[in-house]
């Protein structure tokens, strides 16, 4: 199957946010509402102050019409992000496991539901710090790239998207270099075999084969 330009160049941030909108999030409804039939199933009924899980896009729509309060996920709370940063900054630390769309979800919640996030400015700062630390680790991982494998677990979709163009070109170049190295090694082995064969013939049949 041919690889498209989009697959090699990645997605835009709005496109990634569109994909992230189907992720589930908890809300606290502010008004009584009956069940809502969606393409992917039914949500509700909504009975304040009982929490309910809904797709992110619906949570944002209800929030913008003052029909709900969005419950911040645990990973987006100030204390948790602070601990994540400390963990990520440890020498040789692996990437912390986060939701695949954590950056997109955080951006949308800070845009449309900032008043539902405690210490929102601190959260913004910690997210930026976390992003920078993980970017640094990603670039370090690319410097260790080889033609067989790149091991970087727990990257988010946005982080994968950032390195996709660079990784694709670098990996292709490494594979080409590896192919050249293997070809050179084969030629050297063939040359050594030939030299050894002629040396053995000289020993066996005498110097008449040496000019």
Account of the 3D structure:
By secondary structure, this protein is mainly α. The chain is elongated and about 55 Å long. The strands form two sheets. It has a three-stranded antiparallel β-sheet with strand order 4-1-5, with helices on one face. The longest helix is centred in the last third of the chain and has 49 residues, at 157-205. The chain has helices at residues 5-9, 13-20, 56-64, 78-88, 102-112, 120-143, 157-205; strands spanning 24-29, 36-38, 41-43, 52-55, 68-70. The protein contains seven helices and five strands. Mean pLDDT is 79; it is low at 1-8 and 207-211.
Keywords summarizing the entry:
5 strands, 55% helix, disordered C terminus, 9% strand, two-stranded antiparallel ribbon, mainly alpha, 211 residues, three-stranded antiparallel beta sheet, disordered N terminus
- Fraction in helix: 55-70%
Count of alpha and pi helical runs: 7
Strand content: 5-15%
The end-to-end distance, rounded to whole angstroms, is 57 Å
* Mean pLDDT reading: 79
* Rg of Cα set: 28 Å
**Global morphology:** elongated
Encode the helix/strand succession as letters.
Answer: HHEEEEHEHHHH
The total beta strand count reads: 5
Classification by helices and strands: mainly alpha
In short:
This protein has 211 residues and is mainly α.
Structural topology:
Layout: H1 5-9, H2 13-20, E1 24-29, E2 36-38, E3 41-43, E4 52-55, H3 56-64, E5 68-70, H4 78-88, H5 102-112, H6 120-143, H7 157-205
Antiparallel strand pairs: 1-4, 1-5, 2-3
Helix pairs in contact: 3-5, 4-6
């Amino acid at each position: 199957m041919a690889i498209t330009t989009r697959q090699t160049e990645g997605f835009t941030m709005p496109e990634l946010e569109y994909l992230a909108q189907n992720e589930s999030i908890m809300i606290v409804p502010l008004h009584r509402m009956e069940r809502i039939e969606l393409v992917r199933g039914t949500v509700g009924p909504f009975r304040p102050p009982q929490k309910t899980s809904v797709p992110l896009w619906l949570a944002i729509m209800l929030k913008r019409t003052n029909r709900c309060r969005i419950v911040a996920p645990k990973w987006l709370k100030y204390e948790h992000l602070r601990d994540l940063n400390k963990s990520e900054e440890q020498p040789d630390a692996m990437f912390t496991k986060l939701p695949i769309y954590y950056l997109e979800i955080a951006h949308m919640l800070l845009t449309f539901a900032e008043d539902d996030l405690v210490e929102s400015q601190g959260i913004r700062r910690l997210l930026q710090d976390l992003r920078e630390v993980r970017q640094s680790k990603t670039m370090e991982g690319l410097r260790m790239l080889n033609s067989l494998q790149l091991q970087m677990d727990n990257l988010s979709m946005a982080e994968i998207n950032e390195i996709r163009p660079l990784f694709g070109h670098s990996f292709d170049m490494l594979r080409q270099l590896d192919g050249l190295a293997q070809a050179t090694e084969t030629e050297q082995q063939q040359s050594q075999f030939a030299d050894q064969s002629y040396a053995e013939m000289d020993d066996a049949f005498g110097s008449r084969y040496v000019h």
